[in-house]
Amino acid sequence: xxxxxxxxxxxxxxxxxxxxxxxxxxxxxxxxxxxxxxxxxxxxxxxxxxxxxxxxxxxxxxxxxxxxxxxxxxxxxxxxxxxxxxxxxxxxxxxxxxxxxxxxxxxxxxxxxxxxxxxxxxxxxxxxxxxxxxxxxxxxxxxxxxxxxxxxxxxxxxxxxxxxxxxxxxxxxxxxxxxxxxxxxxxxxxxxxxxxxxxxxxxxxxxxxxxxxxxxxxxxxxxxxxxxxxxxxxxxxxxxxxxxxxxxxxxxxxxxxxxxxxxxxxxxxxxxxxxxxxxxxxxxxxxxxxxxxxxxxxxxxxxxxxxxxxxxxxxxxxxxxxxxxxxxxxxxxxxxxxxxxxxxxxxxxxxxxxxxxxxxxxxxxxxxxxxxxxxxxxxxxxxxxxxxxxxxxxxxxxxxxxxxxxxxxxxxxxxxxxxxxxxxxxxxxxxxxxxxxxxxxxxxxxxxxxxxxxxxxxxxxxxxxxxxxxxxxxxxxxxxxxxxxxxxxxxxxxxxxxxxxxxxxxxxxxxxxxxxxxxxxxxxxxxxxxxxxxxxxxxxxxxxxxxxxxxxxxxxxxxxxxxxxxxxxxxxxxxxxxxxxxxxxxxxxxxxxxxxxxxxxxxxxxxxxxxxxxxxxxxxxxxxxxxxxxxxxxxxxxxxxxxxxxxxxxxxxxxxxxxxxxxxxxxxxxxxxxxxxxxxxxxxxxxxxxxxxxxxxxxxxxxxxxxxxxxxxxxxxxxxxxxxxxxxxxxxxxxxxxxxxxxxxxxxxxxxxxxxxxxxxxxxxxxxxxxxxxxxxxxxxxxxxxxxxxxxxx
Length: 794
Prior knowledge:
Layout: E1 11-16, H1 19-31, E2 35-38, H2 47-50, E3 68-79, E4 84-101, E5 107-112, H3 123-141, H4 147-156, H5 162-171, H6 177-185, H7 189-241, H8 247-261, H9 268-283, H10 289-303, H11 316-326, H12 331-347, E6 354-358, H13 365-376, E7 380-384, H14 392-395, H15 408-416, E8 422-426, H16 439-446, E9 455-456, E10 463-464, E11 470-475, H17 483-487, E12 490-493, H18 499-518, E13 525-527, H19 529-538, H20 546-565, E14 572-574, H21 579-583, E15 601-606, E16 613-623, E17 628-632, H22 637-657, H23 663-666, E18 668-672, H24 686-698, E19 706-708, E20 711-712, E21 718-719, H25 724-733, E22 738-742, H26 746-750, H27 754-757, E23 761-765, H28 768-775, H29 781-786
Parallel strand pairs: 6-11, 6-12, 7-8, 8-11, 13-14, 17-18, 19-22, 22-23
Antiparallel strand pairs: 1-4, 2-3, 3-4, 4-5, 9-10, 15-16, 16-18, 20-21
């Protein structure tokens, strides 16, 4: 048996599917043999049976059978689609002793089990019998799923026969097969009845729990159904009384109210689209798939601020005050913004404009956009396009797609409920490009003043006027922005802050803000002025102030911990002496590699994202037998080309000045630009490279405290370069007092604030001869004028 044991007095059907076993049972019936031993398999109740995994179970292995079973009389044999069904009448207990044969059926030698004589009228037996009968009656009243079997049992079983009560009571439970086998194997009547009673009691408790769960489920369902019916009745009552309309009519009324609210400003083509969509909505059932699509479209169509504008405040003094409150320095940027507002004031309105704020991270590009919106009294919306590769983010999705929605521009108008906000498109230099399209190309229409007056979003499929929107884009570099897109924007460069500006920003803005966020007061903390300068100079040299703010917050966090641990009334002072206690050792040391540079070393100036740096160029001779030239220092393609131009010019210039000097014809020259791990590129080191090579060839040191920058042509013309502000700042930081700049960069020098130019003596050069005179003042004047050869020591 593979399900549960059978008990004496039970009639049970058994299905046999094994073909050999079926044939054996048929032969038994034909030969008149009708008895068979029914034993429970030991594997019954294990996980394999729960998963119907009986493939590895043996059918003729006696060791896998329990010893005690029942003798069954086969009273019926009926064929089925698979195998046959045998019906057995179970008589008495039996126990097998040994195996007689195994094929085709397992034949065992067995003995009947004779029940021990027990006084059935004894008090314990009678008490247990009554307990079994009472429990059976309770099971009958509880509505068990075998109610009919119980009724038949109570009618046919002799209540005074405890043997029948024990066997049939256990048989009618749904207990574990192994528990039932224990009842079958128990020979002591009292113990057998006790086990049966325990199984019946457990069955009764299970049914009670089941009834409780069923009642909870029924209560929950009936409560939900009752609420549903009442709500439906309430809807019909309200509809009859005219108090409430159905869902569709309520939606149409809501859309009509929105349309009436700003109906005077809605364009005719929008009104036409609205009427068509409303008619479509009326004809659709709420269960139709097109219903939700039409509803969402009408939601967007009626929520967009058609013709709704905020009134601009075009007061120059107020705008200037707001810009000064929010930002320190940035004179050129503030002036350009005030010019923009001034033009709007004269015209009476500010038309849409596309501005590009480009500069290093942390210089305040995003916050300037917020300040512009506040100065104009406009609402502000920002979204980033960094890494964006889906055109639908800009142009929207077509309505055929599931979850379709308009692009970011229309989302901004809906969110702000105005048609003339300030929209900031952040990180425009980091636009992606994928299989979904090119967002940069999609932005061409948005950021073109000639086209965005009738911008068509793919979802709305109607022209939307974006010409009154002030678009402000931000970028770290402009090189990665496509040229057609860059051409549509007015680039305002934020070059970054110099040391004096960063110190002032830290004192006026960063320190008070960080003090407030840390929960400290000025009575508890004092930071001396030299600390801000040390932080900006030795810890935070980047062009922006984001890292400087983080460092100031770090100092105040450590102070807050000290205050909480110690005396809260004791004031803490941060000065140059104890600064390292809070921020550690300086990250940046002096950029100056040489106090007195040897021949072959010249000092250049470079623009970096950190705000500028001094650039030392070193040249040495490695071999006198095989002439050549090589460079190191992780230079880019432009800089490598510049080095080749410089080498050619240096050979030509030395030949012109000193024909007898054969240094370049014999020397193998190696030029290096520290630091080797830092990538470098650009043409502005041309004059510095020539100076380094001529210094080595002439054996003459370059003038002390002199730095230079400028692109050089093959004919010795010095061309202008960029980043003058950052380069002069780097020169001051390194202690340089004399700077050589291209003549065409004189205007950039004039635009610098006085505090940046202070302490710097600048010389403007048009050609390299002028650079040579300044770099090598000790070379004889006769040589320069007449170009006579001089003795050169390499």
